[in-house]
Design goal:
Belongs to the short-chain dehydrogenases/reductases (SDR) family. By secondary structure, the chain is α/β, with parallel strands linked by helices. It contains 8 helices and 7 strands.
Length: 259
Amino acid sequence: MDLGIAGKWALVCGASKGLGYGCAISLAKEGVNLVINARSAGPLEEAARRIAGETGVEVRAVACDITTEAGRNEALAAAPQVDILVNNAGGPPPGDFRKFTRDDWIKAVDANMLTPIELIKATVDPMIERKFGRIVNITSSAVKAPIDILGLSNGARSGLTGFVAGLARKTVVHNVTINNLLPGMFDTDRLRGTNQAAATAAGITLEEAAARRMASIPAGRFGTSWEFGQACAYLCSAQAGYVTGQNFLIDGGNYPGTF
């Protein structure tokens, strides 16, 4: 299927690896030019070379802290225009909420709620003027089914979800959609890190810890960044102009509810 977005420009945050990279390369394979962002220059530039080599699109790498105003300005300035925005930031650390400080909360809200909102604010009106825009926020399955030790993520990402729910109904008349992708357990560095922590705590191997977690998923496996990126590409497509304000849970059937 031709998604009708060849020649567009996308800003994809956190795109040097993992789910952000999956979204970036899926968009590039549809002919979308990219500005990709991450904090570490080396891995980001390698990702840019790989994507450009595989797809032939223009890829501009901007290594910066997207949670700062200076970082956002640098990333936004690298694109001739932003037709597609993919917001993505690593989740805050787990823990007991009793031990979280005010600074912990501010950092979580800044990265996982306020930074996406600032990027939306900077790009949505030009999208409206051009009568095309696609905004996808990578949040978490914890928005749908909160996880007790992820209080910082539960709170910050739910705040972004509530904000999007209101705005998305205002922009869709202009062919500008805003949706959220909620990943469950995907085979990323972050998941491998949590699996290692679980293995160490339980005195078992990493492979055993991973197998236990996979056994809890109806699909019997972890998701891949390719699968996630393809879902993102669809939400950014011309065909998805009637889809807005939605929270797409991608978790291999792990969430047990009907709704």
